[in-house]
Design goal:
The chain has one domain (about 15-120). It is built from 5 helices and no strands. It has helices spanning about 1-15, 20-45, 65, 70-90, 95-120. Helix 2 runs antiparallel to helix 4 (about 70-90) and helix 4 (about 70-90) runs antiparallel to helix 5 (about 95-120). Residues about 55-60 have low confidence and may be disordered.
Length: about 130
């Protein structure tokens, strides 16, 4: 059973030309590294600080404890959605795949800018 799953994963990652494109791998790596750095820092610096982060009205029904995870959650959702769209559009249009993963990197950059802005101004007393 495990070998069947391993073979399916190997077919998905190795045999698809999407995962062999170097620019795709660079964009994917940058996104994964960005999210891998953002989530721990967000949890350590902002979630434990106790300062409120006001989220849009749409997610206020989740409660105050989930609002602080809204921004990195949106960044993760943007990355996953753009990765899926890039994977399926790669055969027809490589440039669209590059644009989708590049826009996910741009979203990560904006989230990092907010993170540093929040750390600098909100936690230091403005």
């Amino acid at each position: 059973m495990a070998s069947i799953t391993l073979n399916k994963l190997r077919q998905f990652f190795v045999q698809r030309p999407f995962w062999q494109d170097r620019l795709i791998l660079v964009f994917f790596s940058l996104n994964v590294l960005s999210l891998g750095g953002l989530w721990p820092l967000w949890l350590l610096k902002i979630a434990q600080s106790g300062y409120p982060i006001y989220a849009p009205f749409v997610i206020q029904f989740l409660g105050d404890q989930f609002q602080i995870y809204f921004l990195p959650g949106i960044g993760s959702a943007i990355f996953v959605l753009n990765l899926i769209l890039a994977l399926y559009s790669y055969k027809q249009e490589k440039l669209a795949s590059y644009f989708l993963l590049g826009s996910a990197i741009f979203a990560q950059i904006l989230i990092w800018v907010f993170f540093f802005f929040f750390l600098k101004y909100s936690l230091s007393g403005f």
